[in-house]
């Protein structure tokens, strides 16, 4: 069973009025539909009632570490785990992620995956570069840009090497 909400300002006013009118704690509890203990707590501690700060669990990161995380992540593609490792931050990956997620100025997202270049790809690129290295690229003329429907390519560029 959960904790009941604290009495509202209206209920607190009713408790004060009924108490000064001479009602007992049980009678006040019956009228307001609150427990006797809640009524007694309010009557004995009226000034400080409802002002206690709920403590909660303390943060694993101090202010300096929070600023450091924001500074690091603001202009880099470094992952949250790498931030933890390189800057020796004693907090979990999800804590660092929550810290970055709270900041409205930093938008983090997963990087798009791209296929890794195999050795065959590297050799083909090098071969292409060797073939076209001797071309006079200043004489290249752009023939046209158009939409290619049969192959579903958005754009196709044809290049003619002039004399």
UniProtKB/TrEMBL annotation:
Gene3D superfamilies: Homeodomain-like, Winged helix-like DNA-binding domain superfamily/Winged helix DNA-binding domain. Residues 5-51 form the Tc3 transposase DNA binding domain. Residues 64-102 form the Transposable element Tc3 transposase-like DNA-binding HTH domain. GO terms for cellular component: nucleus. It is found in: Nucleus. Pfam families: HTH_Tnp_Tc3_1 (PF11427), HTH_Tnp_Tc3_2_like (PF21517). It comes from the Eukaryota. One of its GO terms (molecular function) is DNA binding. InterPro entries: Homeodomain-like_sf (IPR009057), Tc3_transposase_DNA-bd_dom (IPR025898), Tnp_Tc3-like_HTH (IPR048703), WH-like_DNA-bd_sf (IPR036388). This is HTH_Tnp_Tc3_1 domain-containing protein. It comes from Heterorhabditis bacteriophora.
């Amino acid at each position: 069973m959960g904790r009941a909400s604290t009495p509202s300002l209206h209920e607190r006013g009713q408790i004060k009025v009924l108490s000064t009118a001479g009602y007992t704690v049980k009678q006040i509890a019956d009228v307001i539909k609150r427990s006797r203990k809640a009524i007694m707590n309010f009557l004995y501690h009226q000034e400080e009632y409802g002002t206690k700060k709920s403590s909660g669990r303390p943060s694993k990161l101090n202010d300096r570490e929070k600023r450091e995380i924001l500074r690091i992540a603001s202009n880099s593609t470094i992952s949250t785990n790498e931030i933890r490792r390189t800057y020796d931050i004693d907090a979990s990956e999800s804590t660092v992620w929550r810290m970055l997620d709270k900041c409205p100025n930093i938008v983090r997202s997963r990087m798009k995956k791209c296929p890794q270049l195999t050795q065959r790809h590297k050799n083909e690129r090098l071969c292409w570069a060797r073939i076209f290295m001797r071309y006079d690229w200043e004489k290249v003329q752009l023939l046209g840009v158009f939409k290619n429907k049969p192959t579903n390519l958005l754009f196709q560029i044809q290049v003619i090497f002039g004399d």
